[in-house]
Amino acid sequence: MLLSANPLEGLEQQIVFGIASGSIYASLALALVLIYRAMEAINFAQGEMATFSTFIAWMLMTTFQWSFWITFPLVVVLSFVGGVALERVVIRPVERAPILTMILVTLGLFSIFNGLSGLIWGYTIRTFPSPFPVSPISLGGVAIGFQDLGLIGVSLLLLFLIYLFFSRTKLGLMMRASALYPQSSRLLGVRVGWMLALGWGLSAAVGAVSGMMVAPVLSLDPNLMQSVLLFAFTAAVLGGIENPFGAVIGGIVVGVLLALVGTYVPHAEDLRLVFGFIVIVLVLLFRPAGLVGRAHVTRV
Amino acid sequence: MALLELQDVVASYGSRRALHGVSLIVEEGSIVAMLGANGAGKTTTLRAITGLVKVQGAIRFDGRSIAGRPTEEIARLGIAHVPEGRGTMSQLSVLENLQMGACLRRDPKAVRQDIDRVYGYFPWMKSRLEQPAALLSGGEQQMLAIARAMMMRPRLLLLDEPSLGLAPIVVRGIFKIIETINSEQGVTIMLVEQNARIALKSADSAYVLEVGAVAVSGLARELARDESVRKSYLGY
Ligand SMILES: Nc1ncnc2c1ncn2[C@@H]1O[C@H](COP(=O)(O)OP(=O)(O)OP(=O)(O)O)[C@@H](O)[C@H]1O
Ligand SMILES: [Mg+2]
């Protein structure tokens, strides 16, 4: 199971584990948030799309012997293009449909991508090479693997890039405006449909990064991202489903909590999924906007 | 030359007809006022032009048929529409609202000049650029909507009740700005107004709508002089 905690290690060590696995949830949560901001719906296929991207990376690296550093950017770009195409072909016809239709469509995509991965690459568990060295470094008595540092660094970098894109670029502004004010944006000449497609592309690209970070840790099979998706969803809800910062903070909080639960609660392995659901329900009940939420401005 | 031409335009909301065959012409470089009582179909006429409501009949802009085209493509041809209710992007900052107006332009230098021009028209804006537009007063939002439309550098500017919610002294200022946009930048303007008196002063020609059809039309100064028109349609 996911970065299982070792109860023999100390508290600090568990926290480091927690932050690292939390970064994984955070990166997929970022992908969920990108879609949610664009169309106010959860993409339940996000994890399976990421797994599919990861398999493509695996194929390029094993069958064609490409290096990780060539494969990685190529798969990110391919996933972006795939996400855009998916929106144009599958989502566009239901763009104005009720939210339930949208959810069913993404659930459909879930089984399609899961099935495709199994069909093409099979259900054997594969090892996925890690881009980071295995040897840990020691910081004040706590051993931190480069793997963990890499996960944390990549998630923070993703967050930073997403922040820059939405706050500093014209395209980011157009995407935000299209999501919030489609009619006003159309009147200004913005092709709102394409902005949504772009949102899907970005989110598929972020998901691909997430998958390629997870696979070395969990080993690759068609169900790679399923538990990750649940905790990513927990993280996104916890942080505020529209807020990229919230998603990252939520991811790390969920990661640390899971590590602590794993250490101090007996039979915790079986309780992890339950724990995720409990957090979701509690947040939705008591703080639906999430811990960080989104700053809605209104005149009082 | 006619920049915009509507011929027997019919528009409905569901099964309810709001326009029963409106025909009108907007000459290039002119200011055209559209007047009429509440519910006459003024807003619907503007919405028909920018494709926000389904239409039958012919709408030509610059010789091209635009009826049935998507709103964003019509906007890209050079039609800016300040809608009823202003279309304020309230969670975005004032500056971002202005930038959205210019988001398709590829002449950053001229965009900056245009933003400066906007500050010239509305000096209060300059000190509130970073504020979310939601915090502006109704009248300030109206000014922002006009400024945002100007940032598009349109050929045709459609204004739905630009005076709505503005203090009388500000209304005079706004109409002066509208005249300047028209005379200095050569933007053709079609404006819907309740305030017939002030609209007819600025406009070259005018149409009066009544239950979804044109009841009277003519040169603005002649309509303003015609007492029977004033009494029966314009209420002053
Ligand atoms: N969204 C809508 N759905 C149904 N009917 C509508 C809708 N919008 C307008 N109407 C109807 O269409 C007719 C014309 O409305 P429109 O908004 O064009 O009037 P207007 O001349 O702009 O009036 P006002 O001066 O009050 O703004 C009215 O009878 C109105 O009730
Ligand atoms: Mg109206």
Keywords:
heterodimer; A: 300 residues; mainly alpha; ABC transporter involved in vitamin B12 uptake, BtuC; 11 helices; globular; B: 236 residues; alpha/beta; Rossmann fold; 6-stranded mixed sheet; 4-stranded antiparallel sheet; 9 helices; 38% helix; binds adenosine-5'-triphosphate; binds magnesium ion
Description:
The complex is a heterodimer of chains A (300) and B (236). Chain A is an all-alpha fold and 300 residues long. Helices cover 71% and strands 3% of the residues of chain A. Chain A has one domain (11-286): ABC transporter involved in vitamin B12 uptake, BtuC, CATH 1.10.3470. Chain A contains eleven helices and two strands, in the order H-H-H-H-E-E-H-H-H-H-H-H-H. Chain B is an alpha/beta fold. Chain B has a single domain, classed as Rossmann fold (3-Layer(aba) Sandwich). Chain B is built from nine helices and ten strands. Chain B has helices at residues 42-49, 71-76, 94-101, 108-121, 138-151, 168-185, 196-202, 220-225, 227-234; strands spanning 2-13, 16-27, 31-36, 55-61, 64-65, 79-82, 156-160, 188-192, 205-210, 213-219. In chain B, the strands form two sheets. A six-stranded mixed β-sheet of chain B has the order 6-7-8-3-9-10, sandwiched between helices. In chain B, helix 3 (94-101) packs parallel to helix 5 (138-151). The two termini of chain B are 32 Å apart. The model of chain B has no long low-confidence stretch (mean pLDDT 95). The A-B interface holds A 170, 173-174, 176-177, 180-181, 183-192, 296-299 and B 50, 52, 70-72, 75-76, 80-81, 83, 87-92, 96, 99-101, 103-104, 132, 134-135, 148, 152. The structure holds adenosine-5'-triphosphate and magnesium ion (MG). Magnesium ion binds at residues 42-43, 84, 160 of chain B.
